[in-house]
Amino acid sequence: MSAKNSRLWALFRIFFNLSAVTLGGGLAMLPLLRREFVQRRGWLSDSDMVDTVALMQAMPGIIAMNMGVLLGYRVAGVAGAVAAVVGGFMPPFLAIVLLATLIMSLQNNDLLNQAFLGVRAGVCALILMAVIELGRQILKGRFEWLLASLCFIAIVFFQVNAIWLVLLGILSGLGYYAWQVARLGRLGEAGK
Amino acid sequence: MNILQLYLLFAKIGFFTFGGGFAMIPFFYHELVQNHHLLSAEEFANMVALAQVTPGPIGLNAATYIGFQRAGIWGALAGTLGVTTPSLTFGLGVAVFMAAFKENKLVKAALQGIRPATLGLIASAVIFFADTSLFTAPLRQLWSRGGESFGLNWRASLIFAVVVFAEWRWKCNMVWLLFASALMACLLYLIPL
To answer: What's the predicted TM-score (pTM) here?
Structure first.
């Protein structure tokens, strides 16, 4: 196998394995990816990883897939990105198809319904804790509080389509920046 | 709903989701439950709960599951590809032009707004799950219809309290907490009180 092909195969395997063992997805993969890419193989430096993570937050879509694209591309170009994505979506695909078949045949089972009620309550609690944790990082001032509350109320009480709220977020972010620039009169000072 | 529609639906959801997993819930809910009536609110909540306890990213699992339920194995593939499309197009573009993107002031400014908006979306997912577990009627009806049918499901509330406490006190593994929730619910159901 050529060096290029062995890299592609390694990327596929890394993302396949990570996707199969990481439950809950997304950022939980980060320490494992760092071990593979930085420590074990030396493909990237720690500051490459930090840049990638920062960039990833500006990208729409699934975090784990975006990570696959960014890291795969850096290591082996477009083919690397594709290898990582395909590796990443295979285990959940197989797991879900098997599980869905099972669940669909068990529908309307009383005990299963109760188990699901319990899991829904548990998920509710976990999301609440995630919101508190994220809120500590994100809600730094009045602008952030106002925007977050507005989006929350719009969805819960007025059932607004979330797409409009993301667009609102983008526009308010740009507007807020423009306002900061105008107020400070200097580009360099804004955004701090 | 045919395969192409499934693909387009999930691609659309993918393109507007920032911040991954939980932030996708309001988008999925709006499209699948409110717009297309593919699932009931409770079925949708079960689907998300299931996506939590299976390996892989939540958004990917949810798209695969719904696709499979609607149109079998090809539907599952359409859902998976749809929700992965943003990464393979926009994401790849970002990877190629990484240097230009990283320090762009406008990108940073937009992010300053996207982050709080996403937080609001995730917070709304808490209410959505409370509506389908803790509460006996959706919270928003408290104002429109008064509190007549509104109440708390004590079993779900107890499990909710236990999980909040366990997560706050010990930072447990999420999946074990959810399996424990399922077990608690079954025990509370089997033991007559």
So the answer is: 0.78
